[in-house]
Queue: 2 jobs
Job 1
Amino acid sequence: MISTLGILLTFLGQIEKIRQGVLLLILMGSLSSFINVMLVTSIQEKSQKDKIGRVMSLVSAFSWLVPLSYGFVSVALVLNFGISHIMMICGIGITIISFVFLAKSKVIKEEI
Protein backbone atom coordinates (compact mmCIF):
# COMPACT_ATOMS: atom_id res chain seq x y z
CA MET A 1 0.00 0.00 0.00
CA ILE A 2 2.84 2.38 0.77
CA SER A 3 4.32 1.65 -2.64
CA THR A 4 0.99 2.73 -4.17
CA LEU A 5 1.30 5.98 -2.25
CA GLY A 6 4.77 6.47 -3.76
CA ILE A 7 3.46 5.82 -7.26
CA LEU A 8 0.61 8.31 -6.73
CA LEU A 9 3.11 10.91 -5.48
CA THR A 10 5.17 10.38 -8.63
CA PHE A 11 2.07 10.97 -10.75
CA LEU A 12 1.11 14.03 -8.70
CA GLY A 13 4.28 15.75 -9.83
CA GLN A 14 3.34 15.20 -13.46
CA ILE A 15 -0.26 16.45 -13.56
CA GLU A 16 -1.47 18.87 -16.20
CA LYS A 17 -5.01 19.58 -15.01
CA ILE A 18 -6.34 20.51 -11.59
CA ARG A 19 -8.89 17.67 -11.64
CA GLN A 20 -6.08 15.14 -11.90
CA GLY A 21 -4.40 16.69 -8.86
CA VAL A 22 -7.60 16.74 -6.83
CA LEU A 23 -8.28 13.09 -7.63
CA LEU A 24 -4.71 12.07 -6.74
CA LEU A 25 -4.81 14.05 -3.49
CA ILE A 26 -8.11 12.44 -2.48
CA LEU A 27 -6.66 8.98 -3.22
CA MET A 28 -3.43 9.76 -1.37
CA GLY A 29 -5.24 11.19 1.65
CA SER A 30 -7.56 8.22 1.89
CA LEU A 31 -4.72 5.76 1.45
CA SER A 32 -2.56 7.57 4.05
CA SER A 33 -5.35 7.40 6.61
CA PHE A 34 -5.89 3.71 5.93
CA ILE A 35 -2.14 2.99 6.16
CA ASN A 36 -1.87 4.84 9.48
CA VAL A 37 -4.76 2.88 10.99
CA MET A 38 -3.32 -0.41 9.73
CA LEU A 39 0.15 0.49 11.05
CA VAL A 40 -1.06 1.32 14.55
CA THR A 41 -3.30 -1.76 14.61
CA SER A 42 -0.45 -4.00 13.50
CA ILE A 43 1.92 -2.53 16.07
CA GLN A 44 -0.61 -3.05 18.85
CA GLU A 45 -1.33 -6.62 17.79
CA LYS A 46 2.34 -7.62 17.44
CA SER A 47 3.69 -5.88 20.56
CA GLN A 48 3.68 -7.36 24.02
CA LYS A 49 0.83 -5.85 26.03
CA ASP A 50 3.13 -4.38 28.68
CA LYS A 51 5.38 -2.78 26.02
CA ILE A 52 2.80 -1.12 23.75
CA GLY A 53 3.35 2.31 25.31
CA ARG A 54 7.10 2.12 24.73
CA VAL A 55 6.71 0.93 21.15
CA MET A 56 4.16 3.64 20.32
CA SER A 57 6.43 6.29 21.83
CA LEU A 58 9.20 5.10 19.52
CA VAL A 59 6.87 5.38 16.55
CA SER A 60 5.88 8.92 17.49
CA ALA A 61 9.53 9.79 18.17
CA PHE A 62 10.14 9.54 14.43
CA SER A 63 7.76 12.45 13.79
CA TRP A 64 10.86 14.67 13.57
CA LEU A 65 11.30 13.29 10.04
CA VAL A 66 8.40 15.41 8.76
CA PRO A 67 10.01 18.82 9.36
CA LEU A 68 13.31 17.36 8.18
CA SER A 69 11.66 16.47 4.87
CA TYR A 70 10.33 20.04 4.62
CA GLY A 71 13.90 21.26 5.01
CA PHE A 72 15.21 18.95 2.27
CA VAL A 73 12.48 20.07 -0.12
CA SER A 74 13.22 23.71 0.67
CA VAL A 75 16.92 23.21 -0.03
CA ALA A 76 16.10 21.41 -3.29
CA LEU A 77 13.87 24.32 -4.36
CA VAL A 78 16.61 26.82 -3.52
CA LEU A 79 18.97 24.77 -5.70
CA ASN A 80 16.47 25.22 -8.58
CA PHE A 81 15.07 21.70 -8.67
CA GLY A 82 11.53 21.77 -10.00
CA ILE A 83 8.78 20.59 -7.69
CA SER A 84 7.71 18.00 -10.27
CA HIS A 85 11.21 16.50 -10.20
CA ILE A 86 11.28 16.51 -6.40
CA MET A 87 7.90 14.75 -6.23
CA MET A 88 8.96 12.21 -8.83
CA ILE A 89 12.23 11.42 -7.03
CA CYS A 90 10.48 11.15 -3.65
CA GLY A 91 7.69 8.99 -5.09
CA ILE A 92 10.16 6.62 -6.72
CA GLY A 93 12.19 6.53 -3.51
CA ILE A 94 9.13 5.64 -1.42
CA THR A 95 8.18 2.92 -3.88
CA ILE A 96 11.67 1.38 -3.93
CA ILE A 97 12.05 1.49 -0.13
CA SER A 98 8.64 -0.09 0.40
CA PHE A 99 9.42 -2.92 -2.05
CA VAL A 100 12.79 -3.56 -0.38
CA PHE A 101 11.13 -3.61 3.04
CA LEU A 102 8.41 -5.92 1.75
CA ALA A 103 11.01 -8.32 0.36
CA LYS A 104 13.03 -8.42 3.58
CA SER A 105 10.29 -8.34 6.24
CA LYS A 106 9.44 -11.68 7.84
CA VAL A 107 6.38 -10.26 9.60
CA ILE A 108 4.81 -9.04 6.36
CA LYS A 109 5.54 -12.33 4.61
CA GLU A 110 3.75 -14.20 7.40
CA GLU A 111 0.71 -11.92 7.05
CA ILE A 112 0.44 -12.46 3.30
Job 2
Amino acid sequence: MRIDLGMSLSEMAKKANKTSSYFSAIETGKRAVTEPLLETVISILCQNRNDEKVLRVAAKETVETVDINLIGKTDAARDFTLSFARRFDELNDDDFESLSNILNKNNK
Protein backbone atom coordinates (compact mmCIF):
# COMPACT_ATOMS: atom_id res chain seq x y z
CA MET A 1 0.00 0.00 0.00
CA ARG A 2 2.86 2.35 0.85
CA ILE A 3 4.45 1.70 -2.52
CA ASP A 4 1.11 2.02 -4.33
CA LEU A 5 0.82 5.50 -2.84
CA GLY A 6 4.31 6.37 -4.08
CA MET A 7 5.71 6.69 -0.56
CA SER A 8 9.29 5.68 0.12
CA LEU A 9 10.33 3.66 3.13
CA SER A 10 12.14 6.66 4.57
CA GLU A 11 9.08 8.90 4.12
CA MET A 12 6.91 6.35 5.91
CA ALA A 13 9.40 6.01 8.72
CA LYS A 14 9.65 9.76 9.16
CA LYS A 15 5.86 10.19 9.31
CA ALA A 16 5.65 7.41 11.92
CA ASN A 17 8.63 8.66 13.95
CA LYS A 18 10.49 5.39 13.37
CA THR A 19 13.66 4.46 11.51
CA SER A 20 13.77 3.10 7.98
CA SER A 21 15.47 -0.05 9.28
CA TYR A 22 12.58 -0.58 11.72
CA PHE A 23 10.04 -0.48 8.88
CA SER A 24 12.26 -2.59 6.67
CA ALA A 25 12.35 -5.29 9.36
CA ILE A 26 8.55 -5.21 9.53
CA GLU A 27 8.09 -5.35 5.78
CA THR A 28 10.46 -8.31 5.48
CA GLY A 29 8.79 -10.19 8.34
CA LYS A 30 11.73 -9.95 10.73
CA ARG A 31 9.79 -7.83 13.21
CA ALA A 32 6.16 -7.98 14.33
CA VAL A 33 3.68 -5.15 13.90
CA THR A 34 2.51 -3.81 17.25
CA GLU A 35 -1.02 -2.53 17.71
CA PRO A 36 0.13 1.08 18.31
CA LEU A 37 2.26 1.00 15.16
CA LEU A 38 -0.62 -0.49 13.17
CA GLU A 39 -2.83 2.41 14.27
CA THR A 40 -0.13 4.87 13.21
CA VAL A 41 0.30 3.23 9.81
CA ILE A 42 -3.46 3.20 9.28
CA SER A 43 -3.63 6.91 10.03
CA ILE A 44 -0.83 7.58 7.51
CA LEU A 45 -1.78 5.26 4.65
CA CYS A 46 -5.49 4.52 4.74
CA GLN A 47 -7.73 6.61 2.56
CA ASN A 48 -10.92 4.65 3.31
CA ARG A 49 -12.35 1.86 5.48
CA ASN A 50 -11.42 -0.82 2.94
CA ASP A 51 -7.75 0.22 3.09
CA GLU A 52 -7.92 -0.08 6.87
CA LYS A 53 -9.49 -3.52 6.63
CA VAL A 54 -6.77 -4.69 4.21
CA LEU A 55 -4.01 -3.50 6.56
CA ARG A 56 -5.63 -5.07 9.62
CA VAL A 57 -5.98 -8.43 7.84
CA ALA A 58 -2.36 -8.26 6.65
CA ALA A 59 -1.15 -7.46 10.16
CA LYS A 60 -3.19 -10.30 11.64
CA GLU A 61 -1.72 -12.76 9.16
CA THR A 62 1.82 -11.93 10.29
CA VAL A 63 1.25 -12.87 13.94
CA GLU A 64 3.37 -15.90 14.79
CA THR A 65 3.46 -15.78 18.58
CA VAL A 66 1.36 -14.42 21.42
CA ASP A 67 2.64 -13.34 24.82
CA ILE A 68 0.31 -13.60 27.81
CA ASN A 69 1.14 -11.69 30.97
CA LEU A 70 0.45 -13.98 33.94
CA ILE A 71 1.65 -11.55 36.61
CA GLY A 72 -0.92 -11.37 39.37
CA LYS A 73 -3.12 -14.09 37.89
CA THR A 74 -4.65 -16.82 40.02
CA ASP A 75 -3.34 -20.38 40.05
CA ALA A 76 -6.46 -21.44 38.13
CA ALA A 77 -5.78 -18.86 35.41
CA ARG A 78 -2.13 -19.89 35.20
CA ASP A 79 -2.97 -23.60 35.04
CA PHE A 80 -5.57 -23.04 32.31
CA THR A 81 -3.26 -20.85 30.23
CA LEU A 82 -0.37 -23.28 30.39
CA SER A 83 -2.62 -26.25 29.64
CA PHE A 84 -4.10 -24.41 26.66
CA ALA A 85 -0.64 -23.56 25.34
CA ARG A 86 0.57 -27.16 25.71
CA ARG A 87 -2.45 -28.59 23.88
CA PHE A 88 -2.92 -25.84 21.30
CA ASP A 89 -1.50 -27.86 18.40
CA GLU A 90 -3.90 -30.74 19.17
CA LEU A 91 -7.03 -28.58 18.81
CA ASN A 92 -9.08 -28.68 15.62
CA ASP A 93 -11.43 -26.13 14.05
CA ASP A 94 -14.44 -27.47 15.98
CA ASP A 95 -12.52 -27.05 19.25
CA PHE A 96 -11.60 -23.48 18.32
CA GLU A 97 -15.20 -22.69 17.42
CA SER A 98 -16.44 -24.11 20.75
CA LEU A 99 -13.86 -22.13 22.70
CA SER A 100 -14.64 -19.01 20.71
CA ASN A 101 -18.35 -19.40 21.50
CA ILE A 102 -17.53 -19.65 25.21
CA LEU A 103 -15.29 -16.59 25.10
CA ASN A 104 -17.80 -14.53 23.13
CA LYS A 105 -20.99 -15.55 24.97
CA ASN A 106 -21.22 -12.20 26.77
CA ASN A 107 -20.85 -10.26 23.50
CA LYS A 108 -24.06 -11.59 21.94
